[in-house]
Design goal:
alpha/beta; four-stranded mixed β-sheet; 27% strand
Length: 189
């Protein structure tokens, strides 16, 4: 049965922003090993018994935080736990911001696309590749137009050839059901 406080809110779920991260690291008395390796500012680095490490942290008015539990002996840092959580959260946010998202833009052709439409779509593809997006160009065959799959392949190869200054072919034309697909990735500058 769920434990609820006097407001009718389930106590098992974190209510504040940092509470989701609070249980990631063991602190102070929750560390259950005989000895730990201490690192951090204002501390002589080395291996200490857990009682000595807790005493050093208490003398400085800070927390003992286990940052690497799988090491032998586990690595602990003497720091303010709330500040430590804030820094970890900030570091995760920076990593997320630095990671790049791959954008794939699609361009659709028919097997008998005329020159004006082709040039219009080619111009868009150049723009996409210059922005750093991948381009997935495909020829869609409706009904009996599948008989012209050679025309579709020629069209896609011409498309790739016209874009060789902007991108390189990642995947040659492949027929998948009613679509013939080619993938282009931007060239690195």
């Amino acid at each position: 049965m769920e434990k609820k406080n006097n407001l009718g809110v389930n106590k098992d779920f974190p209510s504040k922003k940092n509470e989701g991260m609070k249980d990631l690291y063991r602190t102070n008395e929750k560390i259950r090993v005989k000895e730990v390796r201490l690192v951090g500012e204002n501390v002589e680095q080395g291996v200490y018994s857990i009682q000595d490490a807790l005493q050093i942290a208490e003398d400085q008015g800070l927390d003992l935080v286990e940052i690497s539990p799988n090491a032998v002996p586990p690595v602990c840092r003497i720091t303010d736990y709330q500040k430590f959580l804030y820094q970890q959260k900030k570091r995760l946010k920076e990593q997320k911001a630095k990671s790049t998202k791959v954008v794939v833009k699609e361009i659709r052709f028919g097997p008998q696309t005329d020159d004006h439409d082709y040039n219009f779509k080619l111009k868009h593809a150049k723009g996409f590749l210059e922005e750093g997006a991948k381009v997935k160009a495909y020829v869609f065959f409706k009904g009996r137009s599948i008989l012209f799959k050679e025309q579709g392949e020629v069209l896609l190869l011409r498309f790739a050839n016209d874009l060789e200054d902007y991108g390189r072919v990642e995947q040659l034309p492949v027929l998948e059901g009613k679509r013939m697909i080619i993938m282009l990735t931007p060239k690195k500058k």
